[in-house]
Amino acid sequence: MRRSHFPEVVFQNMASPLVNNSSRLSLAMERTGQWVFSQEIPTDVLVEVGKATFSLHKFMLVAKSNCIRKLILESKEADLTRIDLSDIPGGPEIFEKAAKFCYGVNFEITVHNVAALRCAAEYLQMTDKYCDNNLAGRTEDFLSQVALPSLSGAVVVLKSCEDLLPLAEDLRIVQRCVDVVSSKACVEANFPSRSPPNWWTEELSILDVKFFGKVITSMKSRGAKAFTIASALITYSEKSLRDLVRDHSGNGARTAVSDDSDLRTRQRELLESIVALLPPEKSSFPINFLCCLLRAAIFLGAASACKIELEKRISAILEHVTVDDLLVVSFTYDGERLFDLESVRRIISGFMEKEKSVAVFNAGDFREVSSTAMLRAAKTVDAYLGEIATFSELSISKFNGIAILVPKAARKVDDDVYRAVDIYLKAHPNLDEIEREKVCSVMDPLKLSYEARVHASQNKRLPVQIVLHALYYDQLKLRSGTEDQKMPNAITTRRQLQADTSLARENEELRTELLKMKMYIADLQKTQGPSTKATAASSRRPTFFSSMSKTLGKLNPFKHGSKDTSNLDDALVDISKPRRRRFSIS
């Protein structure tokens, strides 16, 4: 034999540039043929691996592979000339390296192929139990001495195991890589060894979501901080769902809105897996990132549990959410139309229910006092309504459904919601009076500032009733002579407005009756002549009041004194008490 049975294997940490599978297979077969024919011994077995065939020598293979030895011994053929090894891990390329090892030909072991070589060695039973310094032992040395001591090397080995399951798991290659990666990632998160400090998150982003989840779970068990886990998840999401999560401007809409159902199915499964890995600490993620995940979940039709989890996380920190964050959830990727606003409604509703529970727990009255978080959230919701009010497809029920989620006590003034109402009325000019009143029902005209009341009094888009309320409030202020800060609260003012409205209605009825009486008297005067008036005056009979007056005059104890009033003419004195009228305008 011209070559030793113990090949010189070159350890290399990085792989050479990759080529396509077909050219790589042809080059492998060409090289295999060269070193096989150089043995000057005719080949006696043909090994098939997929579409590739290798003409080799039985005695060279049997010397290292117990699997091939068994196949030859157990064969029913007298002289086995063809062996099928299509199931070997790694395919033809890895078998070529295993065959070279049997022939003592040099080849390179790298972090990219060491896992496949280790699995192939197990498949071919090329272990040290069968032969000293066999392929299994050489690959184990490379794993422990070269690949696993570094985070980058362990990640690459773990990535290569994706196509080697379940054998790679049975050999514990996956678990060893996961342990190394999670341990070193936790160290790098606390004590970065290079710049940028989160470089390790970029390394993890090349993994399949299954292996990535194993690493994250292992990091959690090692006590990694929530912000460390969040950093890895954010980077992984932006890498794996780039068009759905990272692009916020709508430039990725053409790629995101794809008709490829298989792609969308993979993206949906990936997104659901990422959401399942989120740590329980709800404040560990940027709000905008959560909103982008929720928009992607809505677009991809993710499971209800996935969407509800994201909605709860956003709802828990709604006081920190901006209008732009809510708009991310509300619009499609091209920004041309609205999504279903049910998610936004559930987010706001969940926050309000939480604040109510906190108020009740603190023995407070939620209707009278609102927390700072509630006030901030109310301003955000009102500003958000102003942004979506311009879209024609937004119905009154959806607009009002979001507006009424904010308690009235959470708005010190209704200027922001008035602005949203005005924008909605301007964007929907075909609404009738009743529909406009429905839109305006979400605001309280008595809680508008002076500037807003002035604007409302001149706003032709508002219903007449709203304008009258705003004007009446100013009239009350002028009547009382007080400033805005000294005015009674809205409830007292509303009650006074109702009472005064009732009085005004009564006065109007009295004035109407008086006008009718005057008209009736005028008609009588026209129908009766002057003679009738004279006859009536001369033949006037004593009235009941004049007769009673004379009778009482006789009983006057001062009739003989200086205060005698019995000689006064009853016709010259009006002793009837004037009738009091409330706010009579007659």
From TrEMBL:
Highest taxon of source: Eukaryota
GO terms under biological process: protein ubiquitination
Pathway as given in its UniProt record: Protein modification; protein ubiquitination
This protein's record includes keyword Membrane: no
Domain NPH3: from-to ranges: 198-477
InterPro entries the UniProt entry points to: BTB/POZ_dom (IPR000210), NPH3/RPT2-like (IPR043454), NPH3_dom (IPR027356), SKP1/BTB/POZ_sf (IPR011333)
Key words of the record: Ubl conjugation pathway
Coiled-coil residues: none
SMART domains on file: BTB (SM00225)
Keyword Nucleotidyltransferase in record: no
Family: Belongs to the NPH3 family.
Name of the protein in question: Root phototropism protein 2
Biological source species: Coffea arabica
